[in-house]
Amino acid sequence: MNQIDLMRELHISSDKKIVLLVMDGLGGLPGSDGKTELEAAKTPNMDSLASDSILGLSTPIAPGVTPGSGPGHLALFGYDPLEYQIGRGVLEALGVGLGLDPKSLAARGNFCSLDPATHVITDRRAGRISTEECARLVNKLKSIKIDDVDIIIRPVKDYRFALILSSDGLVGSLTETDPQRTGVKPLPVKPLRKEAEKSAEIINEWIGKAFEILKDERPANGCTLRGIAKDPGLPSFSDVYGLKSCAIATYPMYKGIARLAGMEVVEAGDTIQSEVETLKDNWEDYDFFFFHVKKTDSAGEDGDFDRKVTVIEETDRAIPGILALKPDVFIITGDHSTPAALKSHSWHELPILFYANNIRKDSVAEFGERACMQGGLGHIRHLDIMPLAMAYAERLTKYGA
Amino acid sequence: MNQIDLMRELHISSDKKIVLLVMDGLGGLPGSDGKTELEAAKTPNMDSLASDSILGLSTPIAPGVTPGSGPGHLALFGYDPLEYQIGRGVLEALGVGLGLDPKSLAARGNFCSLDPATHVITDRRAGRISTEECARLVNKLKSIKIDDVDIIIRPVKDYRFALILSSDGLVGSLTETDPQRTGVKPLPVKPLRKEAEKSAEIINEWIGKAFEILKDERPANGCTLRGIAKDPGLPSFSDVYGLKSCAIATYPMYKGIARLAGMEVVEAGDTIQSEVETLKDNWEDYDFFFFHVKKTDSAGEDGDFDRKVTVIEETDRAIPGILALKPDVFIITGDHSTPAALKSHSWHELPILFYANNIRKDSVAEFGERACMQGGLGHIRHLDIMPLAMAYAERLTKYGA
Questions:
Q1: Residue B68 to residue A391, Cβ atoms within 8 A
Q2: Which residues on neighbouring strands pair with residue A289, listed in sequence order?
Q3: Partner residues linked to A330 by β-bridges
Q4: B36 contacts in chain A (CB < 8 Å)
Q5: Has residue B99 got a pLDDT over 90?
Q6: What is the rounded average pLDDT of the residues B118-146?
Q7: Model ipTM?
Q8: Partner B contacted by A390 (CB < 8 A)
Q9: How many CA atoms lie within 13 A of A81 on its CB side?
Q10: pLDDT tier at B95 (50, 70, 90 boundaries)?
Q11: Contact A388 B67 (CB under 8 A)
């Protein structure tokens, strides 16, 4: 029996509430003074909480594997990211706030430059055109019509756009059109199984019309489509865990991933403080709160150690407001590491803290990567987090007689 | 290759003996002075042994999952409890000392009260009738005959009884008759697959006859059947591990589970001391001894912290007698946690101690939950215990060239 089925079978009702605080890209690497971002940050509230908690380190997907944002969050929510996959097109659509229904196929689009004579790609990113130029071109592409297909297209950033086609019978087993190198033509979309033939035809029809519209543009006189995919059809949080779940996030992509898992997404403003207010306002209405802090990751991606420290400290100041609500289970961790030293996501384990009744407190009195190495939780996987949260919330019955 | 197949392939013979001491429900939670039952207990012998051992914490099934007695022991014996399942009816039969053969279907029965006019259930437990009344009713039900079917029925406790039907072709894919609420009639048994149709007919015939016999009784004028199941067909210990195995236990259910795994069950009296004597008496005849202490769990279930401490201390006094036999591998752990604070089984990890040659001694000098957080074994699963025991007993050959 897999974990999803097990949770579906064992969950029972309870009035206990769970808060999962995810600092995106939390895990770090030592800076010049030998401390990670989290260790360097002044976090009196998290450290105090650590003394009353059980801590450890958690591997997002598998040792050595660096997660994208999608897989990192799927694992946090208890969906094995090696089994459930969110296509790049779906993530891109979610990232600009587009919803998907079961009839929708989503793709990530890249404007590119083609040689006018031979149609081979000369620049896969069309000279990284501005977001404004992208918006102007997307506006022109909105004129494309295909019989019985609803089409939504939205600029993302620079040369990137999101495309959603909705129609009966669309299937997501399709190849990409980006050949991943210059000097060759964009590829046609091909079906990977027979049922996807009609879907391939429709997308190729859209591409043909787009090329016609773009042909006199410079530098963006073509485009490629990647990650053409449908909603992964995740079993819903309420079905799997029996939890009425609320997502508090400031960035569209994380709201979108939460929505895929069947959480309700509430308007949470732009700041950690507005997110705490949102948590308070919605406290009575939900059992589970996914509380997402984005800017730790952004700072890490920018290689800005000090800014990441500042965001962690800002989050620490939000802790008393969360604890004042008396969550029965409070978990602090991240979806993946984003060490400023690497300027990118990484595979390193995440520090994790479980605060709840019925824990065995360990001797760790600081929330930090190296302190967590001595934690009583040991080394867990992100997939273990939801079952443990459910157990501490007294929301799982016994397995077997 | 799964673990059972791996063990079957790799085991070799040796004269090394293994003792697995299982204190049922051993794991605990801190009491008023911040110590768990095991930490509060005076265990000079286990602590001394800890100094010469390697220790850690073990998860019975999966993080957050609370095991019943069946799954907890299956995991200890190396059978994945998510793959092998012991039906409730089988456990109930084992619990009153009934054996099962491959032709047997076992069910747990509950006497219930029915409205005499409408036959809807008015009390699912018949007012919790006494064990004596249960025995009187069971005695009446012994008169039921069905062609070509051997029937055994035995009172368990209060309103519960165990029923075993044996015949050729019986199949265990059957629904239960308990609707789990009052105000509705007991359900008929239905087959979950075609092969079980005849089995459903036979059980429904038994139920019809039982209702006829019970109809003038009060309050127990009906009954329901749950967990109708066959022996799970575990691969035997001798086949998987090449071990001649002996179960030393005082309670029928644990003897029964051991018997399902193909162990020989010897008469062990009622006390820990009589179990130690039994171990001595049988020492020469077996390779593996499953030594089960029940009363730690009973005390935990009763919420009696001090009594659980007392049972642990009594077990500690038995350690020198076990060590005097010079077991080559001696393991101390539990099947699951039963913290007195929760008065029930729980998901918490079990402290575990491995004493053997060729171990790497760690720095832990106390057998307790928090001390074991620092143990050299780290965090393992119960499924890992038998392969490690086999290895330390020099009973596994190399895998691959």
A1: no
A2: A19, A246
A3: A19, A355
A4: 360
A5: no
A6: 97
A7: 0.90
A8: yes
A9: 26
A10: confident
A11: no
**Alpha helices, H only, A215-294:** 237-241, 252-260, 272-282
Closest residue of B to A399, CA-based? B67
CA-CA distance, A265 to A289, in Å (whole number)?
10
Structure tokens at B162: 């165990």
d(C-alpha A142, C-alpha A152), whole Å: 8
Contact B30 A360 (CB under 8 A): yes
pLDDT grade, residue B97 (50/70/90)? confident
**Average pLDDT score, chain B:** 96
A169, two tokens: 């019978």
Residue type, B53: S
Among residues B57, B32, B46, which one has the least CA distance to residue B337? B57
Per-residue confidence (pLDDT) for residue A1, from 0 to 100: 87
Asked if the model's pLDDT at residue B401 lies above 90, the reply is no
Cα dihedral angle (B299, B304, B309, B310), rounded to 10 degrees? Answer: -70
**Is residue B353 a contact partner of residue B20, using CB atoms and an 8 Å limit?**
no
Using an 8 Å CB-CB cutoff, list chain A residues near B344.
398
Query: Could you give the domains of chain A?
Result: 3-86+233-392 (3.40.720.10), 90-229 (no CATH)
The nearest alpha carbon in chain A to B257 belongs to: A401
- Residues of B with CB below 8 A from A392's CB? 64
- pLDDT digit string, tens, across residues B7-66: 999 999 999 999 999 999 999 999 989 999 999 999 999 999 999 999 999 999 999 999
Q: Would you report the helix, strand and coil content of chain B in percent, each value rounded to 5? A: 35, 20, 45
**Alpha-carbon distance B22 to B292, whole Å?**
5
Question: Does the beta-carbon distance from B67 to A398 stay under 8 Å?
Answer: yes
User: How many alpha carbons fall within 13 Å on the CB side of residue B12?
Assistant: 11
Q: Do A374 and B370 touch (CB under 8 A)?
A: no
* Section B182-188 average pLDDT: 96
**Which A residues, 342 through 371, put their C-beta within 8 Å of a C-beta on chain B?**
358, 360-363
CB A396 to CB B64 under 8 A?
A: yes
Residue B201: pLDDT above 90? Answer: yes
Which token pair is A258? 């939460």
Contact status of B106 with chain A (Cβ, < 8 Å): no
* Cβ-based neighbours of A225, under 8 Å, separated by 6 or more: A89, A107, A108, A109, A110, A163, A176, A177, A178, A189, A203, A207
- What are the chain B neighbours of A363 within 8 Å (beta carbons)? 370
Q: pLDDT (tens digit, 9 = 90+) per residue, B331-385?
A: 999 999 999 999 999 999 999 999 999 999 999 999 999 999 999 999 999 999 9
Contacts made by residues B174-178, CB under 8 angstroms, sequence distance 24+: B174/B105, B174/B199, B174/B200, B174/B203, B174/B228, B176/B224, B176/B225, B176/B226, B176/B227, B176/B228, B177/B207, B177/B224, B177/B225, B177/B226, B178/B110, B178/B112, B178/B124, B178/B224, B178/B225, B178/B226
In this complex, the residue of B29, B344, B378 whose CB is nearest that of residue A360 is B29
Residue contact B64–A358, C-beta within 8 A: no
* Average pLDDT per consecutive 10 residues, chain A (401 residues; last block may be shorter): 96 97 98 96 98 98 96 97 93 88 94 97 96 97 97 95 96 94 97 95 97 97 96 95 97 92 95 98 98 97 97 98 98 98 98 97 97 98 98 97 81
**Cβ-defined contact of A401 to B227 (cutoff 8 Å):** yes
pTM of the model: 0.92
How far is it, in rounded angstroms, from Cα B106 to Cα B281? 34
Number of Cβ pairs < 8 A linking chain A and chain B: 87
B57 Cβ under 8 Å from any chain A Cβ? yes
Cα–Cα distance measured from residue A199 to residue A203, given in angstroms and rounded to the nearest whole number: 6
Residue of B nearest to A2 (CA): B82
Task: Name the residue in chain A with its Cα closest to that of B71.
Answer: A400
